[in-house]
Amino acid sequence: MSPNAGKKALHFGAGNIGRGFIGDLLANAGYEVTFADVAEPLITALNKDHSYKIHILDQEHKGKTDTVDHVSGILTTNEADVKKIITEASIITTAVGPNVLPKVAINIATGLKARRAAGVTSELNIIACENRTGASSLLHDEVLKHLTSEEDKKYVAEKIGFPNCAVDRIVPPFSEESEGILAVGVENFHEWIVDETALKGPKLNIPGMQLTDNLIAFVQRKLFTLNTGHAICAYLGFLKGYSTVDEALGDKRIEEIVRGAMLESGAALCKKHGFDPKEHEKYIDKIQSRFHNPYIHDDVVRVGREPMRKLAPDDRLIGPVKMAEEYGLKYDNLIKGIAAALRYENSDDSQSEDLKALIKEKGLAKAVAEVTGFEEDTHENREILSSYEALGTKGHL
Ligand SMILES: NC(=O)c1ccc[n+]([C@@H]2O[C@H](COP(=O)([O-])OP(=O)(O)OC[C@H]3O[C@@H](n4cnc5c(N)ncnc54)[C@H](O)[C@@H]3O)[C@@H](O)[C@H]2O)c1
Ligand SMILES: O=P(O)(O)OC[C@@H](O)[C@@H](O)[C@H](O)[C@H](O)CO
């Protein structure tokens, strides 16, 4: 019998990574999984079907599907359901997008107050599975903003763990009409690495979850390699009129820049975290082949979504430049990617609209300073400006 039989898991965000990865691992580990979401159609479908299919999208596993069973859903607007499930939960995870964490924190705070009031003394871990350094720590800080009583704060400090993690599996939007809205398509590769030093209570037993005492190295390795290359491919691809990541990477010049950028961030990561350069190059090769997977139709607009978040000082584009500078290393390809992100214009993406408006209002140099933290008249700011000019609106590479 599974060590997690009879235990409940609550996962916020029944979207791509929620259904396609974290929910799947939790269900396979024996938890009874409940998804919490704001999207009524997803919750209705989960409570009707209690099951969904995962399609593995690659040549080797073509046609292979897994079924995730015994799942259900609640709306985050239903406070009574949120309180009940958080009182009963043995683990909570999220995959809602980093900007949504402050909203989810309100639900979690409400639930934790109810859990303490109900006299539950068992430990609980809450893991934010988002592409952001320190996402669970951010969630913790947001939850604390909604706790006023000393008893609730003490309860959280003693009983509730917020371990950070690195999460990796490419899960693009997917549709298989005959299977309704819950079916999801994923690549076969997956990696979930959790900070064991921040876990509370008995050791978690979840096949597919790895534990580490050096999480920051793994978070930066993933965010500054896969997400760096992915974002640069999306922004250059968008400029040149490609729709998907594999189409964009089929352009030899784009592939050269994407690989060049991953090698630049890689050299800095090896210095910083002591990764073996040969092993790290194999890690880059594997990522490049994952981007080429023709069975994954991943739109450049999904991968490029929210450009201001991606251009933030510690995120996938600026973070590696700062790390390369720390060691006196080159970062020319990374700068090209940053310039392409600044050229990204998608009227369906509110951050792209905000970025365009900021550049128009303040001028490029000031906008770059505000978004990336590279102040006006610094060499980084100037290099970005000159790459932006060279790129033009059509992506001259
Ligand atoms: N898709 C991937 O390939 C992938 C891989 C690794 C990590 N991630 C990370 O996972 C997170 C989610 O990405 P995704 O691709 O699954 O996005 P998604 O848009 O498919 O899913 C997000 C889900 O969150 C729900 N949501 C929004 N606001 C909410 C709220 N207040 N409460 C509860 N649910 C809410 C949405 O309705 C949606 O179902 C992001 O941080 C992303 O960076 C994604
Ligand atoms: O989710 P984002 O917007 O931070 O980044 C877009 C993609 O790069 C990302 O979702 C990847 O597919 C994922 O990180 C793969 O593990």
From TrEMBL:
Alphabetical list of Pfam families matching this protein: Mannitol_dh (PF01232), Mannitol_dh_C (PF08125)
Gene3D superfamilies registered for this protein in UniProt: N-(1-d-carboxylethyl)-l-norvaline Dehydrogenase, domain 2, NAD(P)-binding Rossmann-like Domain
GO BP of this protein: mannitol catabolic process
Keywords: NAD, Oxidoreductase
EC number(s) recorded for this UniProt protein: 1.1.1.17
UniProt enzyme class: oxidoreductase
Mannitol dehydrogenase C-terminal domain segment(s): 215-386
GO CC list: cytosol
InterPro entries: 6-PGluconate_DH-like_C_sf, 6PGD_dom2, Mannitol_1_phos_5_DH, Mannitol_DH, Mannitol_DH_C, Mannitol_DH_CS, Mannitol_DH_N, NAD(P)-bd_dom_sf
Domain spans labelled Mannitol dehydrogenase N-terminal: 8-207
Oligomeric and partner information: Monomer.
Cross-referenced HAMAP family: Mannitol_dehydrog
Listed name of the protein: Mannitol-1-phosphate 5-dehydrogenase
Provenance organism: Morchella conica CCBAS932
